[in-house]
Amino acid sequence: MTDGPAGQVAAGQVAAGQGSAGKDSAGQVSVGRVTVDRDLCVSSGMCESVAPALFEIDDDGELVVLQDVVPDALLADAQAAARACPTRALTVA
Amino acid sequence: MSMTLPEVDAIDLSDPEFWALPPHEIEAAFAALRRHDTIPFYAEPEIPFLPVGPGYYVLTRHADVDAASSQPALFCSGEGAVSIADLPEELREFYGSLISMDDPRHAKIRRIVSKAFTPRRLEALVDSVETLTDEILARARALAEAGDGTFDLVKEISTPLPLKIICRMMGIAEEDHALVLEQSNLILSGGDPEIVTDPEQAIGLVLEAGATLAGIVQRLAEERQANPTDDLTTALVRTDVDGESLTAQEIASFFILLCVAGNETTRNAISQGIWALHEHPEQKARWLADPSLTKTAVEEIVRWASPVRWMRRTAAQDVELHGQHFAKGDKFLLFYSSANRDETVFADPQVFDVDRSPNPHFGFGAPGPHFCLGANLARREVTVAFQKLFEQMPDLEVVGEPDRLRSSFVNGIKRLPVRLTGRT
């Protein structure tokens, strides 16, 4: 549970805004996959307040990802949740 | 909005008089500091009975505040987050809660207390926030109507709302609420001469206030050990992480943190928000005409108010920031209030805009493990406060200037005279 070396946080930061919603050039429906860096997560619940269908802080204070493969309709919510995360612990890719 | 910027050399953030300047002059000083490439350094203000430390650097740009905040291994909190001076051991005891703590201990305690602040727990609180707000507004209206229609918004509305919610969450008895308020005011007075009349006594008074609050919660914690209820105090005394539970001391420190962080911040967001809407009637009209703006309006109030202006970090090793080198032990104040008006991040930052989007403000702190634990609760409180005020006091008007707290740390309003006109 120790903090990572310098730079580790910055790497997470870039990932947040990268996923792309909608269809790619081949007409395929793109999907996002949510990953949580458990060393960074402090269970602030910001993700749940933005995307309650995807995230929940359980009664033990642990973040539960309800659907780690994000349906297309929720991709924008997942990305908003990643941006809202104060510790940049969420990646949607 | 253009403003005349002062010379950087003429700005002294350690001068208490600086914090008595009108807000536009304080904003102009920070605008000048943001444009100045070198990170400024200040001598520490003198506090009676404390040794004067080596001085501190001030981060004013959004990017610099972000960089320090999001690298807790380099910029630590354990040397103190809420005081420029290193606090003596006896003060750390009361004020050394998780805000001034580093991981892994911080993460462990934060996980325990965050259980009480999850979105679902807060959903369950909503009814009580609404009922409390109704009661508070009804009492204020009765008071106004019994007199000449005027009252102090801070005393009658902004103050009781967050205070009573935090006290109820903790399970503090109603008769102790006034005492909790008085002691938390003292702790956060920042030496404002109205609250601390004799600066020589400041440290002693703050110590006593901490001991009083600790006493209240320690008695309560013992009661809850024996007779658990569904309040936060019960959760704190009964919870354990990896077989370890919070000590009585840790519970007391956390309670002090909650009293202080959970009261003054939301109080000042509400007061500053009412003042901002008074100064920008066109924004108030916009919001009233379109309730779907509530979400962005509440965020803008938090950005605009920046109720906590700064937190401190200390270099845990030699570091580089904004191309400058710093030594292990150097102190930094991360000015959220300045980051929130950074021209390179916010379009027209000196404009109050209830529809501002995006709004990546640091009003709840910058990214990192210390991000405000109560952010969701505060958003809820401010939202309910304004919705209810619009609904139940459409005739409320501000009738005088705010009386501001002279503090670098808290952007406080001590009094704001308002009147109910009886007209809508």
Low-pLDDT ranges of chain A:
1-28
Order of adjacent strands in the largest pleated sheet of chain A: 4-1-5
Order of adjacent strands in the largest pleated sheet of chain B: 1-2-8-5-3
Q: What does the radius of gyration of chain A come to? A: 13 Å
Distance between the termini of chain B: 32 Å
Shape of chain A, please? Answer: globular
Range of strand content of chain B: 5-15%
Oligomer type:
heterodimer
Unreliable residue stretches of chain B: none
Quick one: biggest sheet of chain B? 5 strands, mixed
Number of strands of chain B: 12
The top level CATH class name of chain B: Mainly Alpha
Largest sheet of chain A: 3 strands, antiparallel
| CATH top-level class of the domain at 41-93 in chain A | Alpha Beta
- Radius of gyration of chain B, in Å, reads 21 Å
CATH topology of chain B: Cytochrome p450
Helix share of residues of chain B?
40-55%
Range of helix content of chain A? 10-25%
Could you please describe the fold and organization of this structure?
The complex is a heterodimer of chains A (about 90) and B (about 425). With about 90 residues, chain A is of the alpha+beta class. Chain A has a domain at about 40-95: Alpha-Beta Plaits (2-Layer Sandwich). Chain A is built from three helices and five strands; from the N terminus they run H-E-H-E-E-E-H-E. Chain A has helices spanning about 10-15, 45-50, 75-85, and strands spanning about 30-35, 55, 65, 70, 90. Chain A has a three-stranded antiparallel beta sheet with strand order 4-1-5, with helices on one face. In chain A, strands 2-3 form a two-stranded antiparallel ribbon. With about 425 residues, chain B is of the alpha+beta class. Chain B has one domain (about 10-420): Orthogonal Bundle (Cytochrome p450), CATH 1.10.630. In chain B, the strands form four sheets. In chain B, strands 1-2-8-5-3 form a five-stranded mixed beta sheet. In chain B, strands 4-12-9 form a three-stranded antiparallel beta sheet. In chain B, helix 5 (about 120-145) crosses helix 7. Chain B is globular. The mean pLDDT of chain B is about 90. The interface between A and B is medium-sized, with 27 and 29 residues.
